[in-house]
Amino acid sequence: MISYTLIRSKRKTTEIQVRVDGVIVRAPKRLGIGEIDRFVASKEAWIIKKQAEIEKQLVAVKNQPKVNLLTKDELTALANQALAVIPERVVHYARIIGVDYGRITIKNQRTRWGSCSSKGNLNFNCLLMLTPLEVIDSVVVHELCHRKQMNHSKKFYEEVYKAYPEYDKWNKWLKDNGNAIMARNVVLDKTGKSKDAVTSPNLSTREKAKILALEWQAGDDLEEKLAKELREEILARHLVLQDFKMAKKV
Ligand SMILES: [Zn+2]
Fold first, then answer.
1. Average pLDDT per 10 consecutive residues for the chain, totaling 250 residues
2. Contact (CB, 8 A) for 234 and 192
3. Are 135 and 143 in contact (CB under 8 A)?
4. Distance from residue 149's CA to the centre of ligand 1 (Å)
5. Domain 72-219 falls in which CATH fold?
6. Which of 231, 248, 246 is nearest to 193 (CA)?
7. Which terminus of the chain is more solvent-facing, meaning fewer CB atoms within 10 Å of its CB: N or C?
8. Span from the CA of 205 to the centroid of ligand 1 (angstroms)
9. What pLDDT does 249 receive?
């Protein structure tokens, strides 16, 4: 006999829900207990099957490697590191490629490693600091070559390979490992959604008065504690298991 928690309410159907914390049966207020028991008994095989599936999910979740989320302090450190490293690489490769550029901005994005605007403003992701220098160079070269070709045409890649013959190798590295690095960057706004950019006024001047803006995704207005709670919530959300329901009209 399957044990279950019975919840009676104003409803017309009887529903069995198999959850990680047990079996819930929702039934109409006046339905006799005998009938409910018979219904549950008739679905015993289905319930046992679903319980086994949940057990399997639990094991899978337990064996799942934990995403090691970056803290706000760690992200700040990466952004500062990026400010110290990336502009120099830009200067170096801009000379080789023979292009100019505008503002360099270090961002903390969840989807992009770099970008180049039509005005030549360059954005780089601070998470690049978690990749080899060769990868950083490949992204810098890629963005700078957009100063010559605003597309991904054959001509564009010719420029890329000329400046950086090992481009494919390190681009592949980023394709293979990049998502796992991006996944470590979960920054949340007050509603618990991940957010893409909040500008901070921390600017530093470098390289011929070009402004390096440190755009900061983690809201400084977010209290540390709140951020931590939201992080945990996100982690918990990864652990939500699928429930199984079945209903019968009686
Ligand atoms: Zn591109």
1. 92 86 89 93 90 76 66 82 90 95 83 89 92 97 96 95 97 89 64 35 28 30 43 43 49
2. yes
3. no
4. 9
5. Zincin-like (3.30.2010)
6. 231
7. N
8. 26
9. 52
